[in-house]
Specification:
two-stranded antiparallel sheet, 186 residues, 40% helix, 7 strands, alpha+beta, 5-stranded antiparallel sheet
């Protein structure tokens, strides 16, 4: 065993959520190798039961409208909710896209998609982008699913909000855990 933490542990320990980001965002060409790397997540059956949808520009405003519709809001409340997807120049929707399998249940396939989301957030963070994971009550609503073009078997898990990391922006770091409260032996 190594005495010093390796690169993966250092990346995990250094990761922070960036709730405020600038207007620059990675291009599709910059995203491709990161998505390819994230695909190395543990995947029983190698089913690749996930996909990523990039939302930029006007598609973010359309998402805001779909969120407000899903919430049944109008007026100022609808405007406030509709503005949330505009907080970052790039949203990466993470979709669980289960494949038929007699040995890998849907919940396990959804876990793979979640693993891809987290790995992708680490990779984006390591590349110097500001990233935060966002979900919400309306993630699996009909208007939001329709906007994303989801198949009936697919489930939207949430979005990675991605943008330029701002030098003085507030970041969040979770408090250290009591490992003994989360680790047991059988």
């Amino acid at each position: 065993m190594a005495d010093a933490p390796g690169a993966a542990r250092r990346a995990v320990e250094a990761r922070r959520s960036h709730s405020t980001v600038g207007e620059a965002a990675p291009s599709d060409e910059q995203l491709r190798p990161l998505i390819a790397a994230a695909s190395s997540v543990a995947d029983h059956g190698a089913l690749r039961p996930w996909r990523v949808i990039a939302l930029r520009g006007e598609s973010r405003a359309r998402l805001g409208t779909a969120l407000a519709e899903a919430a049944g809001l109008d007026g100022r409340a609808a405007e406030k909710l509709a503005a949330k997807p505009l907080r970052a120049p790039l949203l990466l929707a993470i979709v669980a896209s289960p494949k038929p399998s007699f040995k890998v249940p849907d919940w396990e396939q959804e876990a793979v998609a979640i693993g891809v989301a987290h790995t992708l957030s680490l990779l984006l963070d390591e590349e110097g982008w500001g990233v935060i994971w966002r979900t919400g009550l309306h993630t699996r609503s009909a208007p939001v699913a329709e906007l994303h073009g989801l198949a009936p078997t697919e489930r939207l898990l949430g979005w990675l909000y991605v943008g330029e990391r701002l030098p003085n922006a507030k970041t969040s770091r979770r408090a250290a855990i009591d490992v003994d409260a989360h680790l047991s032996t059988l």
